[in-house]
Amino acid sequence: MAEEESMELISFGIVASAGQARSLAMEAIAQAREGDIEGARKTLEESREVGLQAHDEQTKLLSREASGDHVPVDVLLVHAQDHLMTSMLCQDLAEEIIALHERIAAK
């Protein structure tokens, strides 16, 4: 039971960090759209820092599994992984969108 609770806390932690990272990436896009390229880059960097918390938790789980300590996979963990991957994709796209806004502003 303690392991299930631990996995639940890890999963919720990933969801929370990844969700915040995604929100910050979207905020960075909005800043770029408004012409605040410097602010957008700072916000995107903050998004990446927050996202690293979720990524570190995922890496711990992968390391456990690789060392032979099976990690039980449930719907909550799958949901957490989905949030993490979505936030990472959003960050990558935000980087490109910010660069596009910067190019447009330079013309």
UniProtKB/TrEMBL annotation:
Cofactor note as given: Binds 1 Mg(2+) ion per trimer.
Record keywords: Magnesium, Metal-binding, Phosphotransferase system, Sugar transport, Transferase, Transport
Signal peptide limits: none
MF (Gene Ontology): metal ion binding; transferase activity
GO terms of biological process kind: phosphoenolpyruvate-dependent sugar phosphotransferase system
Entry EC no(s): 2.7.1.-
Active site: residue positions: H79 (tele-phosphohistidine intermediate)
Binding annotation for Mg(2+): D82
Cofactor(s) of this protein: Mg(2+)
InterPro entries: PTS_IIA_lac/cel, PTS_IIA_lac/cel_sf
UniProt modified residues of type Phosphohistidine: H79
Domain of life assignment: Bacteria
The name this protein goes by in its record: Lichenan-specific phosphotransferase enzyme IIA component
Lineage: Bacteria, Bacillati, Actinomycetota, Coriobacteriia, Coriobacteriales
